[in-house]
Amino acid sequence: MQENALHGWKMDTKPGSETRHMRMTGYPAKIKSISWSAKGKWLASSGAPAAIVWPFQAKDGPMGKAPLELGTRANIMVTQVACHPTDEIAAIGYADGMILAVRFADAKEVLLRRPGKGAITAMAWNRNGKQLAFGSEAGDCGVVDITA
Questions:
Q1: Structural domain 20-145, CATH architecture
Q2: Can you give the pTM of this predicted structure?
Q3: To the nearest whole number, what is the mean pLDDT of the chain?
Q4: Who contacts 97 (Cβ-Cβ below 8 Å, separation ≥6)?
Q5: Whole-angstrom Cα distance, residue 59 to residue 10?
Q6: Which of the four pLDDT bands, split at 50, 70 and 90, describes residue 28?
Q7: Residue 105 — very low, low, confident or very high, per pLDDT cuts 50/70/90?
Q8: Where are the domains of the chain?
Q9: Residue 53 and residue 82: Cα distance in Å, rounded?
Q10: So what's the pLDDT on residue 144?
């Protein structure tokens, strides 16, 4: 989008009925990263000083519902999000290079990486969710192993 918002349209409507336009607004910056939770109940997004996580459990998606705001940090912007492949957890990468893992149910946070030299620009979980690969705009990269 050219604006600081997400838009979605419900396409599986019956013939003759209107499609529903879902507007998810209020972001202070452009959304550059989105990630669906394992069962498609949540959509995590960047573009704010917290990961904005929209609920998609109901048939109308996020319409009329407030999002979760996870991993809020004063005025450090979230640059990347990556939902865990099996659990309702998101890895959140920030403009200062820090990475947190945050649980949707209670917003409990775990520090995965201290601030680095540049913004987190890429993150991906391995298939079983035991490792998180990341990269930053400064060229830093690595794998966080959470098996211990």
A1: 7 Propeller (2.130)
A2: 0.87
A3: 88
A4: 113, 114, 115, 116, 117, 118, 119, 120, 136, 138, 140
A5: 9
A6: confident
A7: very high
A8: 20-145
A9: 11
A10: 96
